[in-house]
Automatic annotation (TrEMBL):
PANTHER family: ATP-BINDING CASSETTE SUB-FAMILY B MEMBER 10, MITOCHONDRIAL, ATP-DEPENDENT PERMEASE MDL1, MITOCHONDRIAL. GO terms for cellular component: plasma membrane. It comes from Metabacillus arenae. Residues 48-330 form the ABC transmembrane type-1 domain. It is found in: Cell membrane. This is ABC transporter ATP-binding protein. One of its GO terms (molecular function) is ATP hydrolysis activity. It is a multi-pass membrane protein. Residues 364-598 form the ABC transporter domain.
């Protein structure tokens, strides 16, 4: 009992919520949208591939008649050796043509498939880059990765083989039916009896197959999300010795993934045998009824042989169409998920006539701004504040009081629910996002370091900066010293997230990165929290110089760092409680005074 309880706790630990199975019927509009990715190739690769398909299909359709009716009935039946030789030559020539056409078909189709996948992945990545913070708040990184990698990969087979097979098989099927009817309508009708049975079985299976492929994607996404989180959080896991529990949870997710695959492939595997069974029934009918027709003189042996050839070919496109249909179903499930992302509009968007502020001054105004991340809680409550250009303003308050939210609204990572944010007198919604953000630098406590060299990391926001400028920025924030001590100095490679650097060193890097971008507005969100006091003093000194001519918003819990700010704004539960300089607020003996006193008391105790 206890064991079961423990297990359920582990099961309850991770939640990956947003990737539900999207249940929609087969959707032609979506199909059309997917195929529209072929459009850029409609003048080169696509027509070339279609021509080769038409050639190969035509050869396959003509060959059985030549072999059956012409060779058997005419040449061999009439012992016409000349005709026989000509026919052998024609058959040889046709097969050579088909062979060459197939080589090119495969080459061109692969190129077409790869190009479409390349375009689609680029489109999706570009789109995801433009999406607002809210989108990423609601999804795990792993589930986004699945869509950009796995879902797009699953379309590869469809575009490389599926689409063209669809055309080829469709043409073959129609061609064969027309030829069979021309040769012997009654024998054709006899064989066709099986078609509806087959159709009925396959349509029933279709729905189940489609749903199970969707389930596979869902489970894969969950597995990916969990993997991503486990690896990123491995240090915490090990510190709390939760490896065993994590492995157990992973086993659960991995098993779910395995089971979903097994279920989908099992249903998938039923398709082919059904087609082959009906093929066998068709052959039996042909032999029995065909023999009767030969006996009563309705058809010749040549027609019978041609029929046998066509029958062999007839089931091939049907069976392959079944496979293509499965590919289509998988493709539909994936494309539904891809299009769901592509249809996601950036919540923060700009108007067509957005203003480009080339020389921002840095005057910020909040007027009755209300904001909530979700419907349940208010993060900011009718906030009004003014920050003059060039001022340094500190935001203080308890955890969760709304400091970062104010910074988020200034960078326009979110839009205010009510009220207005203005920069240099312009409503922020009227500004071009790139012109706004390129003049704002944000330094967060959790600094993101990209894989690459230290030099590249500092240069991240200002790709045109010279090495000298990078070094100057690093010196200005006191990062030069530790960088010089690294094995390769500025050329030292750091891995993703900069795990080889200390938190403080990463912080210094992000300072240099922010300053190099030469912003008009600098937002420092708990930026000096991980830096030792000595370095902080250095940075404070450097900052004084660097903040000249810029508007700065400093968010700090360590109140000693913000004493000299022009203005201190005290927040509580999304409301502004106090506003003024350090001395004014100390005189007021309000919340700020209490916070400062509390910190001094803590220091005294320490
Ligand atoms: N992405 C988010 N989605 C939903 N709620 C959020 C999100 N970010 C913050 N919140 C909530 O909004 C409120 C204000 O958060 P905010 O990050 O602005 O606080 P803060 O004052 O910066 O806190 P801290 O000092 O801990 O950084 C909090 O209640 C927080 O839980």
């Amino acid at each position: 009992m206890k064991e079961r309880e423990e297990k359920s706790i582990i099961k309850e630990r991770f939640h990956y919520s947003t990737d539900q199975v999207i249940e929609k019927p087969f959707n032609w509009q979506q199909m059309w949208r997917l195929f529209s990715y072929m459009k850029p190739y409609s003048k080169n690769l696509l027509p070339l591939a279609v021509i080769t398909v038409l050639l190969a299909t035509a050869v396959r359709l003509i060959a059985p008649i030549i072999i059956g009716v012409y060779t058997l009935d005419h040449a061999i039946g009439n012992k016409d050796m000349n005709l026989l030789m000509i026919l052998v030559g024609v058959i040889g020539g046709l097969y050579t043509l088909s062979y060459v056409a197939n080589i090119f078909r495969i080459r061109w189709m692969n190129m077409l498939g790869q190009n479409i996948i390349f375009d689609l992945r680029k489109h999706l990545f570009t789109h995801v880059q433009s999406l607002s913070h809210r989108f990423f708040d609601q999804r795990s990184a792993g589930s986004i990765l699945v869509r950009i990698m796995n879902d797009i990969n699953s379309l590869q087979e469809l575009f490389t083989n599926g689409v063209i097979n669809l055309l080829m098989d469709f043409l073959l099927l129609i061609g064969i039916i027309v030829i069979l009817f021309t040769l012997s309508p009654e024998l054709t009708i006899a064989i066709m009896i099986i078609l509806p049975i087959m159709f009925f079985i396959s349509t029933n299976l279709r729905k189940k197959i489609r749903r199970s492929w969707q389930m596979v994607r869902l489970k894969q996404s969950k597995l990916n999300s969990h993997l991503n989180e486990s690896i990123q959080g491995i240090r915490v896991t090990q510190a709390f010795t939760q490896e065993k529990e994590n492995i157990e949870f992973f086993d659960g997710v991995n098993t779910e993934n395995y089971d979903s695959w097994r279920d989908a492939t099992r249903k998938n595997a039923m398709f082919r045998p059904i087609v082959e069974m009906t093929n066998a029934v068709g052959s039996a009918i042909l032999i029995w009824y065909g023999a009767t027709l030969i006996a009563n003189g309705s058809i010749t042996i040549g027609v019978f042989v041609s029929f046998a050839f066509y029958l062999g070919m007839f089931w091939e496109p049907i069976s392959r169409l079944g496979q293509v249909y499965n590919q289509l179903l998988m493709g539909m499930a994936s494309s539904e998920r891809i299009f769901e992302f592509l249809d996601e509009k950036p919540i923060v968007s700009e108007t067509e006539d957005a203003i480009h502020l080339d020389e921002m001054k840095g005057h910020i105004e909040f007027k009755d701004v209300e904001f909530s991340y979700d419907e349940t809680r208010t993060a900011l409550n009718k906030i009004s504040l003014t920050i003059n250009a060039g001022q340094t303003v500190a935001l203080v308050g308890h955890t969760g009081s709304g400091k970062t939210t104010i910074a988020n609204l200034i960078s326009r990572f979110y839009d205010a629910t009510n009220g207005e944010v203005k920069i240099d007198g312009n409503p922020i919604k009227d500004l071009a996002i790139s012109s706004l953000r390129s003049q704002i630098s944000v330094v967060l406590q959790d600094t993101f370091i990209f894989s690459g060299t230290i030099m590249e990391n500092i240069r991240f926001g200002s790709p045109d900066a010279s090495d000298e400028e990078v070094i100057r920025a690093a010196k200005a924030v006191g990062a030069h010293e530790f960088i010089s001590r690294l094995s390769n100095g500025y050329e030292t490679e750091v891995e993703e997230r900069g795990n080889v650097l200390s938190v403080g060193e990463r912080q210094l890097l992000s300072f240099a990165r922010a300053l190099l971008a030469d912003p008009k507005i600098l937002i420092l969100d708990e930026a000096t929290a991980s830096i030792d006091t000595e370095t902080e003093v250095k940075i404070q000194r450097a900052l004084k110089e660097l903040l000249k001519g810029r508007t700065a918003i400093m968010i700090a819990h360590r109140l000693s760092t913000i004493r000299e700010a022009d203005k201190i704004i005290v927040l509580d539960h999304g409301n502004i409680m106090e506003e003024g300089s350090h001395h004014q607020l100390m005189d007021q003996k309000g919340i700020y005074y209490e916070l400062v006193k509390a910190q001094y008391r803590m220091l005294d105790v320490g």
